[in-house]
Specification:
- The complex is a heterodimer of chains A (289) and B (215).
- Chain A is an alpha+beta fold and 289 residues long.
- Chain A has six helices and 13 strands.
- Chain A has one domain (45-279).
- The termini of chain A are far apart.
- Chain B contains four helices and ten strands.
- Chain B has helices at 4-13, 66-73, 112-118, 129-138; strands spanning 16-23, 28-33, 38-43, 50-56, 83-85, 91-98, 151-153, 176-182, 186-192, 208-214.
- In chain B, the strands form two sheets. In chain B, strands 1-10-3-8-6-5 form a six-stranded antiparallel β-sheet.
- Classes of the chains: A alpha+beta (289), B alpha+beta (215).
- Chains A and B meet through helix 2, helix 3 and helix 5 of A and helix 2 and helix 3 of B.
């Protein structure tokens, strides 16, 4: 049997050709094992890294993570925009509710300490660090029709994919569909509300913005990296998004965040009760590396 | 009610009346409003939040999208001229006249679960809008996955310069109306908000009147 062929006309040759492509390194790709990621965040042991990926502008990723897992999003070039949907893994009818997230917190703008709430009065994820401060919980993501009007195309494989089209693909790979997509939020491109209620696009806070999320329940994360729907640029302006995940612990009563606000404390109590009912507390404390 | 908006609404209500119903305090309501028909909401006793969801009647996976609506008009407040858009950025309903001037679409619906955070666990067994939406939506085959951020007619939710937002005293008054034109056959779900822990209903839920006319 031939072990090498210069042609892809045969199965043997096609196999050799396919295998010869491995080992290439490009700027946008997942790196496995994640522990081989060259630059773990400060204070994170490389052995604790669970996922490491750079997501292309105009593309998406989706992660299923356990309670306590920490996920960091990083805007490498100052032009990424991470559109995020969170659902509870295993019971995805419980999902991100942006109205409750802002209303319960009495705060329109996301930042360090924000609690991303579900419709069931529980914390899906906490924002434990934010070096950007330029985010948005009102405008959702871009749509096919919107991107066709703005850029000429919004299809997922085209030159200017719409966020909703990518979130639908990410959802599909988690067994979910259009009905499972609530309004999303986005990181790294800021929006402010002026005194008349007008939405003002303030754009990026700059290169290297980082947002670190702590999963407070088992989660499905759907992430689309596409321009913000209010981005005034007529060109499809985007940049790679780094996504790292590592082992961690959920917020506990000893954390300052637990009792930072009375509404948040009740949300953490609801969340801890759900985790305990699901038997997740024991698994967390017994976890070994 | 006088004024230009009132005159427009008076004229719209003079069309053929397809439906004219009073929704009791705390109750739910639903109907399909055919494309081209007008739905007029009357705040009978003043400052009554009317929680409102809408769907493409022929494909309910296409539904009201608060984000797409806000992006289209570049503003968080709904009033005359606002086009309520679907999650596919298509026009669903247009506000053709409004006697109040400002309505909400960032505050969402109250729920037993969020009440536990906002006011404490003692409020969990009070009635709430999400339960109205679920019960009413079930009659049309809709379920939990079909609930998204809604409109709150007559509710006042300002955002301060530092981002502080909240439901504050309403701007409406007894008899104030608004009229919507359906841009497609639209399934409308209403929860006449039962909340008693904040000023969205003036701490006193009251009936509203809904009228569908064909101009």
């Amino acid at each position: 049997m031939s072990t090498h062929s210069s042609t892809t006309a045969s199965t043997y040759g096609a196999r050799d050709h396919a295998r010869s492509q491995a080992g290439q390194v490009v700027t946008v790709m997942p790196v496995l094992p994640a522990s081989s990621w060259p630059t773990p965040p400060e204070g994170v042991d490389a052995r604790d890294l669970l996922w490491a990926e750079t997501v292309a502008g105009g593309s998406y990723t989706h992660l299923r993570v356990g309670r306590g897992t920490t996920v960091r999003l990083r805007d490498l070039d100052g032009a990424a925009c991470a559109h995020l949907v969170l659902l509870q893994a295993g019971s995805p009818w419980e999902r991100l509710n942006v109205a409750d997230t802002t209303k319960v917190a009495w705060q329109a703008y996301l930042g360090t300490g924000s609690l991303l709430l579900s419709d069931q009065g529980r914390v899906l994820a906490s924002v434990v660090e934010d070096s950007s401060g330029a985010h948005d919980a009102f405008c959702g993501t871009s749509t096919l029709a919107g991107n066709v009007a703005k850029y000429g195309d919004g299809s997922p494989q085209g030159a200017s994919p719409a966020g909703r089209e990518l979130l639908l693909l990410a959802a599909a790979k988690q067994g979910l569909s259009a009905r499972d997509l609530p309004p999303s939020l986005s990181f790294f491109q800021g929006v402010r509300v002026d005194g008349d209620g007008a939405l003002v696009f303030t754009g990026s806070a700059g290169v290297d913005g980082c947002v670190t999320l702590r999963a407070e329940l088992p989660l499905v994360l759907l992430v689309a990296n596409v321009p913000h729907p209010l981005d005034p640029s007529p060109s499809y302006r985007t940049a790679p998004l780094e996504v790292l995940a590592w082992r961690g612990e959920p917020t506990g009563p000893d954390d300052a965040l637990w009792s930072a606000t009375p509404e948040g404390e009740r949300a953490f109590l609801n969340t801890a009760a759900q985790a305990a009912l699901l038997g997740l507390e024991a698994r967390t404390s017994e976890r070994t590396r | 009610m006088s004024g230009p908006a009132g005159l427009v609404i008076d004229r719209l209500l003079a069309g053929d009346v397809a439906l004219d119903e009073v929704v009791p305090a705390r109750a739910a309501w639903s109907s399909v409003v055919p494309a081209g028909s007008i739905l007029t909401v009357v705040d009978l006793e003043g400052n009554q939040a009317v929680d409102f969801l809408a769907y493409n009647a022929h494909d309910t996976s296409e539904r009201y999208s608060a984000p797409d609506t806000m992006v289209r008009q570049g503003n968080i407040f709904l009033s005359t001229g606002s086009v309520l858009c679907t999650n596919e950025s298509r026009p669903l309903l247009t506000v053709v006249a409004d006697e109040v001037g400002r309505h909400d679409t960032i505050g969402g619906a109250c729920s037993k679960e969020s009440n536990s955070l906002r006011y404490g666990h003692h409020t969990v067994h009070q009635h709430a809008c999400v339960d109205n939406f679920l019960a009413e939506g079930a009659q049309w085959g809709l379920g939990k996955r079909d609930l998204v951020s809604n409109v709150n007619w007559y509710m006042n939710v300002p955002v301060e310069a530092d981002g502080t937002l909240g439901i504050v005293d309403g701007l409406s008054a007894p008899g104030r109306r608004l009229s919507l034109r359906a841009e497609m056959d639209t399934l409308v779900l209403v929860s006449n908000c039962p909340q008693v822990n904040n000023p969205c209903n003036g701490f006193d839920p009251t009936p509203v009147r809904l009228v569908v006319t064909r101009p």
